[in-house]
Amino acid sequence: MIARTTTICVTTLVAILAVTAFGIALGEYPLAVRQLPELLFGGGTRLDRHIFLDLRLPRAVIGCLAGACLAMAGALTQTISRNPLATPDFIGVTAGASAGAVAVIVFGGGSYAVTGTLTALGIPAAALIGGLLAAGAVYGLSWRNGVDGYRLILIGVGAAAVLTAITSWLLVVASINNAAQAVVWLAGSLNSRTWDQALPLTVLAVVLLPFSVLLPRVLRVTQLGDDVATALGVRVQATRLGSLGLAVGLTAAAVAAAGPVAFVALVVPQIMLRLTRGSRPPLLASALGGALLVQSADLIGRSLFAWEIPVGLVTAVLGAPYLIWLLVRRK
């Protein structure tokens, strides 16, 4: 199984590089794929470097890292709950992060460096705080001498509905310009992304993703059941709480940079689980698969239509049929 997982990870990584390079080269001002390494190290014309380094590379970085963070978060939540529906989208984390970020957009004009009691934190910090508060509330309400996966999902769905209503209220009271900006952001989009959004996401991803990759051994034991894991010396509830905290951080980082890109956290871990034929969603393979899905969805949204389709709408079209199939299959 290790050899199969390694092969899938390497193949997915090669596909990510290919899709990313093609996506960077594509545009109204086309670039040749062969000249991208030269531009990366300071070669080429000034205009080519500006288009590559300032306009298209940040978008590609955000697409890869946001997809990886969302898929990793989905793999973590599905593993600790032993339920394929337990993703940040369904347990209220994404809705909480979205509410926090929309509050900054509405009251602070969407800037990453605005002033004021709320907006001084900026969009990334507000999304992180919103996701943490939502996750804490759902986890606390789900606790009954432990946390059951189905109870976590049901309470999470209710919390997500409340937070979505708060987000809708924020859009109602916002000015027209801020509301329009928030609506575009809520669709999940990589359009007009710059290093202002890419750098905070990169920092959080560099910190959180390695911690997540170190968890497989402990998570593997928890799949045997709470009683067996406890007998083997694993602190089950502490492991779940720590894994949920990592998932919240990863989700908030992705949502702050790219908006709530739908269904990545749900679909990718289950696809990689079936490809690797393991007992639980593979963390590293899921992260790579998430990066590939978001990059591919962004390329589809930019190239197959006369106007640009937000990446979140493309992933929703791809992920919604899978959700229906999963619900029907599990009765």
TrEMBL record:
Compartments reported by the entry: Cell membrane
Chief place of localization: membrane
Residues passing through the membrane, by range: 60-78, 90-114, 120-141, 153-177, 197-215, 244-268, 309-328
Gene3D superfamilies in the record: ABC transporter involved in vitamin B12 uptake, BtuC (1.10.3470.10)
Topology class, membrane: Multi-pass membrane protein
UniProt keyword terms in alphabetical order: Cell membrane, Membrane, Transmembrane, Transmembrane helix, Transport
UniProt KW Metal-binding keyword: no
Pfam family, one: FecCD
A GO biological-process term: siderophore-iron import into cell
Cellular-component GO terms for this entry: plasma membrane
GO molecular function: transmembrane transporter activity
Similarity comment: family membership: Belongs to the binding-protein-dependent transport system permease family. FecCD subfamily.
Protein name: Iron chelate uptake ABC transporter family permease subunit
Organism from which the protein derives: Amycolatopsis acidicola
Upper lineage: Bacteria, Bacillati, Actinomycetota, Actinomycetes, Pseudonocardiales
